[in-house]
Amino acid sequence: MAVLDGETGDRTNADANAVTERLVTASFVQLVPTLSVDALAATRLLLASLVRRDVPFQVTRRTDAVPGGTTHVAVGCNSPSADVVLSPGSATTEAVAILDALGDHGVAGWSSVGKTFSAPQPADETPSVIGVPTPDDPTGLADATLVHGPFSSDPESAGRLLARGTGRDVATAVTIDTLCAGTTSPPLADAIETFLRARPTPDGPFATTAGTADVLDVLVDVDPGLAIALACGHDAIADRALKRWHTHSAAVHAAVEHAATTTGEIELDGDLAPVGATARLIRTVTAPDKPIIVRNGTRISVASPDPGDTDVGGMLAGPDRRVTDHGDGRVTIANWPADESPVEYLSGGDR
Length: 351
Hints:
alpha/beta, 5-stranded mixed sheet
């Protein structure tokens, strides 16, 4: 994380204590998150602490009009006008450090939501559940985009899995079906572990941490405003968000099936197709040896074969490109030229 020096205009790396001081003494805080699960979860954590301390704040995507006297916090993105920057790809981790410095415990489950894709949580003694947004729901399992198997987009098949009995029986069946549908790899193993060992979120908009992350990862592409509203704690819109997720998750699974028969870019139909979730799941299932590229007109998402890759965003960055770093070797760019391929940039060609 970094802060802006008001006297020199330089931005320098800062620890959580320095950022905490900026936030708790601010007269007004403007939180500007990028469209990633990591950034939205970090925003939820920060705004909860601001509410506890009666610090006025606003969550917005606009950066062109920052009122005077405002402390502008860029969450998960680099903004030249920001007073505080939480780093792209690790905003949740840095938000947790800020809360620790404040002595806050955060909002139950949201740190795990933010780290679902970038830093899967190790197993602990917390009771785990299958990572769907709604419990014991065949459509939730059928539409889940963390994994892909014969049950995907097939509620009847998913229902038969859920009817097998205990949670252990269901987990075993999901694991076998998922492994049979994909190429064995560390990302696939991590995805299965994350999906089968999700944490309950009794105070969240959905039943589990992984299920919440799944819904948000689709919504950041298909309905960004709805995703931000959920991150701001407007849980009353959860049903609407869930319907949007159900509607668009089928496109993700259809693209995974198509990816098995092509070696080129994946083109999705519709103006608001979930390119980011699609690139992530194709990488999980196919274990590629080169980046996965999913396109929807001028919007593209690129997933490096290595979820730990931190270079892919820099390869595709440009002065007129809005790059969202998801923190898992995956970036989404909203304004990529429709007639240009990112392949030459990824292979080290001239920009």
